[in-house]
Amino acid sequence: MNWISNYVRPRINSIFSRRETPENLWTKCEECGTMLFHREVSENLNVCTNCGHHMHITPRDRFKALFDGGVYSEVKVPAPTPDPLHFRDQKKYPDRLRAAQKQTGETEAMLVASGDIGRTPIVACAQDFSFMAGSMGMYVGNAIIAAAEEAVKLKRPLVLFSAAGGARMQEGILSLMQMPRTTVAVQMLKEAGLPYIVVLTHPTTGGVTASYAMLGDVHIAEPNALICFAGPRVIEQTIREKLPEGFQRAEYLLDHGMLDRVTPRTELREELITIVRMLMGLPPAVRGDLPPPADLPHELSPEPEAEAAPAPPPAAKKG
After folding, report:
1. Is the whole-model pTM more than 0.70?
2. What is the β-pairing status of strands 35-37 and 26-28?
3. Domain total for the chain?
4. Backbone phi, then psi, for 259, in 5-degree steps?
5. Residue 196 is inside which H or E element, if any?
6. Does residue 295 lie in a domain region?
7. d(Cα 196, Cα 110) in Å, to the nearest integer?
8. Is residue 139 a part of any domain in this protein?
9. Residues sharing a CB contact under 8 Å with residue 308, sequence separation 6 or more, in sequence order
10. Is residue 80 a part of any domain in this protein?
């Protein structure tokens, strides 16, 4: 055993080596460019603490912050026929699905759950934009139908969080058929006398906007969310005119009567509790009696000795 190489050298290296900060401790806001400590972003529901920009949030993190104590039960969604058209562009459709599943850890682009918010039982479903842009395929159609059937069976209101780039091109006409299918599912809720509340998040576009995303009894949007059928650039190129400032953003649609509210994500839970209880004919919730949501899990656990956020990484030099 070489005492110098096996003990002395590693000991010296551990004392004098520079301790670097992991890159994923910091998140850069796309809107204002501020470097944000990961724990602050997580505790603020992925909303920038400097400018209020709403970043992407996964359905599971959204549900943990929405339901009492972060406790909810997943609703099983029937699996559709995989790759019914044997579609291939640059990649095979099954390969794209497997890549999205590996990246997100989810089976598909929508999660359905049931639980309580403010001791009020609901059924909720949320789209994951990071899964193939939250595109509406047969699974998403099955998920909305399963959510509506669960809501009717349990006599609960349905809350849907939309986030999608539109229909899924790899499923062709079968994807477009989800528009009438989901419309029938929404009609089931109306016939049962149950509220259907839609929360439109950034972005909600295409066939999703043209179907279930705009059929709610109440429409709420997160700030500055893009909500449209065709995108602003497509419209500008078609009509050859400059569009108004903020066109198709949540605040613009609110001013023109297409939305009921624009509510920040950090205030959304309390607003949903108020609306759901009002539509279900329940007495208003007592603020001090509401059970809190669960804290969002941190991707990285802070080190015991590091109580404050470390210094942000230096800005890259130009040139």
Report:
1. yes
2. antiparallel
3. 1
4. -130, 160
5. strand 196-204
6. no
7. 17
8. yes
9. none
10. yes
Exposure letters 47-73 (e unless 16+ CB within 10 A, then b):
bbeeebbbbebbbbbbbbbbbbebebe
In a domain, 171, yes or no: yes
Q: Which residues contact 95 (CB under 8 A, 6 or more apart)?
A: none
Size of the chain in residues: 319
Kindly state the tokens that stand for 279: 């539509």
Residues in Cβ contact with 91 at an 8 Å cutoff, skipping those fewer than 6 apart = 99
Angstrom distance (rounded) from CA 74 to CA 149: 14
Tens of pLDDT, residues 282-307:
998 876 667 778 755 444 333 334 44
Q: How far apart are CA 72 and CA 294, in angstroms?
A: 11
CATH code of 179's domain: 3.90.226.10
Cβ contacts of residue 295 below 8 Å, gap of 6+? 43, 70
Query: Which range of residues forms the domain containing residue 170?
Result: 56-289
Cα 211 to Cα 208: distance, rounded to the nearest angstrom: 5
The strand pairing partners of 127, in sequence order, are 110
Cis peptide before 78 (omega within 30 of 0): no
Question: Can you tell me the distance from the alpha carbon of 165 to that of 208, in angstroms, rounded to the nearest whole number?
Answer: 8
Q: Lowest-pLDDT range, 24-28, 87-91, 208-212?
A: 24-28
| Beta-carbon count within 10 A of 190 CB | 12
